[in-house]
Amino acid sequence: MGAVVARQFAGNQQGIDVAQGGMQGLSVEIFSACPHASMIKGLGLAGFGQQQITRVNTLENSEQMDVDHLSLLLKNSKAKSKIVIASSATVTATSFDDLEAVSALCQQHKAWLHVDAAFGLFERVVTGKEGKTKGIEMADSITLDFHKWLNVPYDAGAFFTRQPSLLVQCCEVDAPYLTNNEAQPDFLAMGIENSRRFRALPVWFTLLKYGREGIKEWVQRNMELADELANWIEQRSEFELSVPCQLNVVVFRPYSKHLSNEQSDKFTTLFLEQVNKDGKIFLSPGVWQGQKVIRAALSNWQTSKEDIALAKKSLLSCYKMLVSE
Ligand SMILES: Cc1ncc(COP(=O)(O)O)c(C=O)c1O
Predict the structure, then answer these.
(1) Which of 130, 172, 213, 216 has the maximal Cβ count within 10 Å?
(2) Could you give the residue range(s) of every CATH 3.40.640.10 domain in the chain?
(3) What atom of ligand 1 comes closest to residue 89's alpha carbon?
(4) Second-level CATH architecture of 2-196
(5) CA of 36 to the centre of ligand 1 (A)
(6) Taking the CB of residue 83, how many other CB atoms lie within 10 A of it?
(7) pLDDT tens digits, residue range 250-262?
(8) CA of 162 to the centre of ligand 1 (A)
(9) How far apart are CA 69 and CA 175, in angstroms?
(10) Strand pairing partners for 84?
(11) Centroid of ligand 1 to alpha carbon of 185 (angstroms)
(12) 42-69 burial string, b = 16+ CB within 10 Å, else e?
């Protein structure tokens, strides 16, 4: 939806109604530092092309967008319309873009700002408006996943835009047999799917049951436990922390500084397989600065200190098992 609505915005800027007439003649440049795979997919589906992203540099040892580089790129762009895709937070380093600075640049260059906040928007429940998502309220559109930190079943997400009329321009079609009660919002005209199941129900129940304070409790606990695990990993000689922990993901690998890149990747893969085979915890693979790493992502509402103790035990025993083989 982010890609499609931004496309309609660009068309409106250029006197082209893309939803009705197609995108012939549309001149757009898209800027992003670390777009999530789902955004790249969305850009392909929207007809921009997965490869048509002007990459903004990141800050050192981070996935955060370099705002000075974005400023330069926007200034030099020859495109009639500009779209900036920012993150709160990225999938590996959980980096948050400086949205106050990014949105100011977008306003200056009349660019559409989309923020992927699939995970990171929940951070706001803990730190409020002055936290890591500061400035997100200036975005033109935001995506958020409920099936992540809200702990509802797949596949519930939300799309927010400050220009819902663009959403309607993109999605409304004439189908008299589907005509809704005119007094109610027509969700058929506000999303890609026509027929869809009642995904909102588990979201609504969860919000009612736990409320802001309940959700804050588990988000904060996940963040604190991730921090504890990261600190432990940093101190252990068996492991190395790849990126400082900023949110709920601990990125690490078994100690490999003495190994070649190829050997290190192999060792990391074997270690990850061993941990997941052990079955006490489940970790996912990742890539950091071209090298294989492991992601310990904490997001379950029940994750406790005992689980972290179990994780530490499993990591150590799997490591010992692997090096003794
Ligand atoms: C930063 C970010 N954006 C977007 C997504 C897309 O998630 P989904 O395809 O599950 O909605 C994810 C999922 O991992 C994510 O971490």
Answers:
(1) 216
(2) 2-196
(3) 1
(4) 3-Layer(aba) Sandwich (3.40)
(5) 7
(6) 27
(7) 999 999 989 999 9
(8) 21
(9) 46
(10) 31, 113
(11) 27
(12) bbeebebeeeebbebebbeebbbbbbeb
Cis omega (within 30 of 0) for bond into 98? no
| C-alpha to C-alpha distances, 280 to 41, 108, 239, nearest whole angstrom | 33, 51, 18
Spatial CA neighbour of 39 closest among 105, 104, 114, 151 = 114
Give ranges for CATH 3.90.1150.10 in the chain: 225-324
Q: How far is the CA of 115 from the centre of ligand 1 (A)?
A: 12
For the chain, give the mean pLDDT. 96
Residue positions counted in the chain: 325
Residue 75 half-sphere exposure toward CB, CA atoms < 13 A: 6
CB 242 within 8 A of CB 145: no
Residues with a CB atom less than 6 Å from ligand 1 = 36, 38, 91, 116, 118-119, 145, 157
Say if residue 29's pLDDT is above 90. yes
More confident residue, 70 or 194: 70
Q: Name the residue with the closest Cα to ligand 1, atom 6.
A: 38
| Nearest residue by C-alpha to atom 2 in ligand 1 | 118
Report the top-level CATH class of 225-324. Answer: alpha beta
